[in-house]
Amino acid sequence: DLRDESDRRGIRVVMELARDANDEVIMRQLFRRTQLQTTFGVINLALVDGRPLELSMMAMLGLFLDYRREVVRRRTVFRLRKAEERAHIVEGLIRAIDIIDDVIALIRASKDPQEARAGLVGTLDFSEAQAQAILDMRLQRLTNLEKNKLEEEFAQLLADIEKYRSILGNPATLDMVVREELAEIRSGFADDRRTTIVDAVDEVSLEDLIPEEEIVVVLSRDGYLRRMPLEQYRLQGRGGKGVKGATPKVGDEAAIISVSSTHRDIYLFTTKGRVFAVKGHAIPEPRTGKGRLASQLISLENGESVVGMKDSHLHGAKFVFFITARGVAKRLPAEELENLTRAGRRVLTVDEGDEIARVRFSSGNDDIFIVTAKGQALRVSESEFRPMGRQARGVRGIRLMGGDLVVGCDIVKPGHQVLLVSERGVGKRTCYDEFMPHHRASGGCRAMKISPKTGKIVGSWGLMPDDQIIVMTNRGRVIRLDVDEISILGRTATGYRVIKVAEGDEVADISVIRTSEEEGE
To answer: What's this model's pTM, rounded to 2 decimal places?
Structure first.
């Protein structure tokens, strides 16, 4: 039985159920199939300093508090100015009453108000504002009673001025005013919440609401992610010290940089050989601060951390090529990276103490170029690495000597050069044709002469003549260059300064900005 017992006091609908009915199931069906409960998505997309940002609840409240602080500050500045102006006038009126005989005599001896005002200023040392107030004062205010009122007003004005200056001079006092005003609003208007906030988005595409723009994504060694607009970094000449970019928190260092888009996925590779996909717009763009831990964006296991990052644009590639720091290489079909979930997917079995050094996308018919920290390089055909499954460990890609480690890996393309950069910012371009192909697991040949002055090699990047690069140091200094600023030298040459690195700082990573449809790094 169903009855509508609604009246002027509110809505009331009564349902009488059969004895064997499950009331919880009935309620769930009512919530699901009727308008008894309505669910709607909320995307906190707002303009912050002219830029569209998706805000968390805490960020939104923080911005509101900043707004309230600014309102209170401006209001207090206005009130302070008015109080100081009024105190100045009242002080003049009190003094005028004290010497009223002189004031009256001067006014009576003047031909007009202008002469009287000039006399008050010049003879009795009143200000222009005080002189005008004295001329406007009525005779009834010359009594002792009026003087007492003016003195009380003056004392109150001085107290107000002190209070306003305290608010403006002490952030804690200003926050206390904001807190008290919010408490007043709450006491007058607060009631129980009528909706429930849940963390869900239904049938809403963020890409439709967020403008697509090129971004620079930075991962720190402690696992913090942040993004910045690429346009923030203007082109500079070779050898400069760069500009302040992704400044890490104290004790942390910038580690990996990648150029991507707010609409594309960023692949994150972990120490346990898993890969995750995170949308570019999901990575925070803080005006200040360290960003957000990767573990807050993806589901990492205990002891697992992100060690690799790459833009997801495959450019028609058919395979993903992995190389670890200890030289283990593996080729994986590119479709294994499709439809990644928050849980991630294992794509490589990594040995204890080893980690992914570089990830590249290949066509299946390319040559692979592997570079080590001590300046060795190996060019090898991709066909020497058979495709493997996601759980496979891989095979030896390059033979390493004397504690050397792999730091770079690239796909050899016609007309490209390889960029090599050292820890101290020394770099060069070299044509791939100077490196003859060898078999996998061999030691390769010298690619760059290194010394204590240059430091070890940081990595290698395949370049086209019209590319640009972004170089980032551990301390977050960033420089953007046209690649033609960097000389093309032989494979045994040392190179020239690409970025001026401060004492104690080192080059952390480089990302390539590519305008053509070929793969970027």
So the answer is: 0.58
Q: How far, CA to CA in Å, does 97 sit from each of 94, 115, 133, 152?
A: 5, 20, 12, 15
In tens, the pLDDT along 101-153 reads: 888 899 888 889 899 999 999 888 899 999 998 888 876 666 666 788 889 99
**Residue pLDDT, tens place only, 416-445:** 999 999 999 999 999 999 999 999 999 999
Q: How far is CA 146 from CA 90, 135, 499, in A?
A: 11, 16, 75
Closest residue by Cα to residue 256 from 305, 294, 308: 308
Of 236, 282, 289, the C-alpha closest to 260 is 282
Its domain, for residue 17, covers 2-33
**Strand order, beta sheet including 395-396:** 356-362, 319-324, 328-333, 395-396
- Residues with Cβ within 8 Å of 396's Cβ and at least 6 positions away in sequence, in order, are 327, 328, 329, 440, 441
Here the CATH number for the domain that contains residue 133 is 1.10.268.10
- Compute the half-sphere exposure of residue 183: CA atoms within 13 Å on the CB side of its CA: 6
- Same-domain pairing of 211 and 179: no
CB 511 within 8 A of CB 259: yes
Question: Residue 303: what residue type?
Answer: G
216 and 297 housed in the same domain: yes
Q: Which two tokens stand for residue 38?
A: 């309505």
* 224 occurs within a structural domain: yes
- Report the alpha-carbon distance of residue 241 to residue 238 in Å, rounded: 9
